[in-house]
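Obj: model holo form, ligand = IPE.
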Amino acid sequence: MYKGQHLPEHVGIIMDGNGRWAKKRGLPRSAGHVAGASNFRTIAKYCSQIGIRYLTVYAFSTENWKRPQEEVKALMRLFRQYLEEALRDFTEENIRTRFIGDVSVFAPVLRDLIEQVEESSKNKTGMVLNIAMNYGGRAELTHAMRQLAQEVKHGSMQPDEIDEAAIERYLYTAGQPDPDLIIRPSGENRTSNFLLWQSAYSEYVIMDILWPDFTTEDLDHALEEFVKRNRRFGGI
Ligand code: IPE
Ligand code: IPE
Ligand code: MG
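Output (holo structure tokens):
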């Protein structure tokens, strides 16, 4: 259990490497997603236990629809299972679950479950868990710009009133602090469209571990690495 001081308030995790994990074992990619989803439950609980205030996990990107239909289907099945389980079993946990991304495209049964999970956990006072589903940083910013354009069109806002705070009000993470630390398992050195606006000054920790293998000790290591970083935010 992490005992260090100075916890990041907001942690983001790009849950990557499920497919490679399965391939290494001669299993179908979907088996990697099953293992990854199970690990997500473990890591989210751990983050809540050690006192992280906000956890944002990247579960499905706006680009992941490009994958073979069979894989997308398997992911949607897992998503549904998770939502049903969250409604049934996670009631005692003090975690507030929210979904970020355009969830309007999902099947009605999924949308309904999403709403129920958000509703049933909305008064929880512990960690806020943002699950990024059909999330893309560019899509998020496009959505925000459209909303601002509507405001200008209706006269409720002037173009010169569009500032950073106005843009932030239309992000899916409105009202939340920016991520302090973003962890990317699987060794890839890129954002893959995750929290583009919010990560301007996030500390990235890239780890050469595939997501299903990522343990609570690995999370501790990322936190220890974060503490050593000297964040300047453009200052000196
Ligand atoms: C992350 O693992 C899960 C999703 C993107 C849904 P991947 O499926 O991307 O696994 P790799 O990167 O191919 O190993
Ligand atoms: C990022 O991983 C998305 C999620 C983990 C949900 P990808 O596997 O989609 O990213 P790329 O394709 O390697 O950049
Ligand atoms: Mg990947």
